[in-house]
Prior knowledge:
Layout: E1 13-14, E2 21-22, H1 29-38, H2 63-71, H3 86-98, H4 125-152, H5 159-171, H6 184-213, E3 222-227, E4 233-240, E5 248-250, E6 261-264, E7 270-279, E8 283-291, E9 302-303, E10 307-309, E11 313-317, E12 323-328, E13 333-334, E14 352-357, E15 376-378, E16 382-390, E17 394-403, E18 406-415, E19 421-429, E20 434-441, E21 448-453, E22 456-461, H7 467-471, E23 475-476, E24 480-484, E25 488-494, E26 499-503, E27 506-512, E28 525-537, H8 545-553, E29 557-561, E30 572-574, E31 576-578, E32 585-592, E33 599-605, E34 611-618, E35 622-628, E36 636-637, E37 639-641, E38 644-649, E39 654-661
Antiparallel strand pairs: 1-2, 3-8, 3-29, 4-7, 5-8, 6-7, 8-30, 9-10, 10-11, 11-12, 12-13, 14-15, 14-20, 16-17, 17-18, 18-19, 19-28, 20-27, 21-22, 21-24, 23-26, 24-25, 25-28, 26-27, 31-34, 32-33, 33-39, 34-38, 35-36, 35-39, 37-38
Helix pairs in contact: 4-5, 4-6, 5-6
Amino acid sequence: xxxxxxxxxxxxxxxxxxxxxxxxxxxxxxxxxxxxxxxxxxxxxxxxxxxxxxxxxxxxxxxxxxxxxxxxxxxxxxxxxxxxxxxxxxxxxxxxxxxxxxxxxxxxxxxxxxxxxxxxxxxxxxxxxxxxxxxxxxxxxxxxxxxxxxxxxxxxxxxxxxxxxxxxxxxxxxxxxxxxxxxxxxxxxxxxxxxxxxxxxxxxxxxxxxxxxxxxxxxxxxxxxxxxxxxxxxxxxxxxxxxxxxxxxxxxxxxxxxxxxxxxxxxxxxxxxxxxxxxxxxxxxxxxxxxxxxxxxxxxxxxxxxxxxxxxxxxxxxxxxxxxxxxxxxxxxxxxxxxxxxxxxxxxxxxxxxxxxxxxxxxxxxxxxxxxxxxxxxxxxxxxxxxxxxxxxxxxxxxxxxxxxxxxxxxxxxxxxxxxxxxxxxxxxxxxxxxxxxxxxxxxxxxxxxxxxxxxxxxxxxxxxxxxxxxxxxxxxxxxxxxxxxxxxxxxxxxxxxxxxxxxxxxxxxxxxxxxxxxxxxxxxxxxxxxxxxxxxxxxxxxxxxxxxxxxxxxxxxxxxxxxxxxxxxxxxxxxxxxxxxxxxxxxxxxxxxxxxxxxxxxxxxxxxxxxxxxxxxxxxxxxxxxxxxxxxxxxxxxxxxxxxxxxxxxxxxxxxxxxxxxx
Length: 664
């Protein structure tokens, strides 16, 4: 994304007798000859790399392969074969290409889309959710542990525990586990792994917060909000209901009471809910609790079985629980696709759950074939529409559909503080070879959609003009996808999904796949996830899409100080924050350096903007700061003064700094 280059050599060994290429090389004479005959760039390179071994999961060579390699070292009529490490091969290749005319050495800029195995974005949804939640948890554990160490001057960062947890997370990202293409026993094993991973991560967060709670000042009972993201937030926190909280209200920084709401979560647990403003970047804030009743809401939140409304939207449902109209009250426009100035086009309904027959010709868990589109059934057997929450913080309508042997329950929620429309979903899924999607036809004219990926985003066509466009009928994205015209757009966010398709103004998120091979029980059972709709003014940059997607995936945490206590820490603190106007830079990670010396801060530029003067301000004065690479090697000087580090950043560039604070 940032324009840097990687020297690449494609493995092109033919998988005989078919014409496909493979990484399962036998090192047989026809493999070697076929590789040479198929290679198209002999004029600039005459040394090719062949990978061989039994199996595609890191399998090793057989005796027959080794004997074949010995014979092929000098066999007339066959290219000569010799053994060697890949690293040495690439060093020779780089040297060889350095003397060639640049025009003769091909360079590909952009995505290399694999027209194959599109089902792996979705198969085995439970492991994909566990992976996303583990990544978020360990991000929070690192940030919270760093915050506690810096503020308390205690060297208690759980480096060994977090490393063990990360190693297990990465193990379960291996082919074929995270792609969802393994056998049943693999997912039984990794479910136990994720329980252990979660336990270890939660213990790290709890210990870090506990160290801070013991030293926070409080004049009486108080609530503490923890923010693991590097931007100040106004967002939800919740605590288990208790009688001790009855008659107490939360006060903001100016001493004004904040609205409180009693709710019952999906597990039947009673909780108290607040939207807390002004929680500092990568930090915390203490909110006083005082006797009194929660104030009346400042904005209207209406929920009925056919209508939901807040300050942002007026949302009307049809008799099947689908969105018939979504009116943007602030901008006076219909969000759903419509054909006339005043009315919604027939059939243009939002949050339509679509079930497709999904029987690929080969590799059931791996593939989705384009003809899946030919057999679609809408999930429209609405069993109930029940008003579950009516504000003042959140309004929720519970919708339940029946689909053959499966049950889909959604909690459609609007908020007083946020324009996000959440679809908190629980599914008891019992189908096989059925692909489930959520569809939103939106009133936006755009030929490209933008997808969130690791450390950035990319654009893909939202039409099928060419064979290449047509082949991208299912694509990968991480936390969000957005379709925007010049002054308006709509984003679809998620907390654990990866498969998307956008065409002709319809945004769709792939929810479940339910393959039968190699695991005949894949995706059958209980699922929980959230996706969200976010219409916005301007494009995705102006519309705050990235920030809302991070907020959805990284909810704030809260804790209680039950009584007055003297503390030597400030009542609010930010470990690190970016300067005003630097919101195109994302501070992604704060962690202890792997060698234990200093703190690692990793950022990336997210909006294809160049800046010569990004300011990163820490909560403590800096003693030393250097720039290093992604694996924490090297030391390049970087400008800093007091608590502020200043640097330049290029479009989509990733920056890693190692910093030391005064006193540590």
